[in-house]
Amino acid sequence: MNLFAIRKHLDKVLEPLLRRLARLPIHANHWTLLGALIGLTCGAVFLYAHWWIGLVLLIVRGLVDHIDGYVARNFNQRSTFGAVMDDVSDRWVLGVMYAGGCLAISADYPHVLIVLGLGITGSLTNVIIKLSIYAESQQDVWREQGKMGHPIDVVGLFGSAEFMIYFGFGVFFTALLEDPRPLLAGAWAVAIMSHLSLLQRVWFAWKRYRFVDPGKQDLGPSPTSPTSPSSPTTSGAPGVSAAPAARAMPSGPGVTDGAT
User: Which structural domains are found in the chain, ordered by start?
Assistant: First the structure.
């Protein structure tokens, strides 16, 4: 289980602050863009080893990541584009901040470049296996408040929130002690825990789907499949089939915007 499982409880704690910030005349997509810019700045600040400033930007970026989803849900600003860009921005920003911190201490610890590669690889494959399970097991996908959810969301010991904890504590103690070793430990924690989480998600997929044949899942006819003369039409002309109805998602426990 990861911190995504308690995301709703955290949202309740942050609700008063989010409500005040959400009153600002800023669109949800603009909040996402602002978070990306803050994260990019944070990565540059880490690169030059300004740890206290970087830590503040890291925390602020995490708060902005909550605000965009809150605004989208509560001010009728949800869109597929916004959901996609929120996910893409989140992963990109975390990679930039992680790289900035690792590169800053690479002169003292050259092997951190290997750790950097492992951390980014583990984080990316965590996202990839999640998206692959979403695509191949749509019978288990649900929607609540426009956000897709799946049991895989709470599997694994690594996600965006865990990254903030592992790497954030490394930054904090490096700034406090003026010693790069805590940040090195945080970088190792991201690399190790992301791979452990990947193994947990592989295990989940093996237990749940090893006997499920995706070819037997009926998702409706392909839009490009040939039609017979007796097929229903939209224009009255023979051979022009009607667009297939959207497939309803099964209901299930709700999730909120956020995590891998």
Answer: 3-209 (1.20.120.1760)
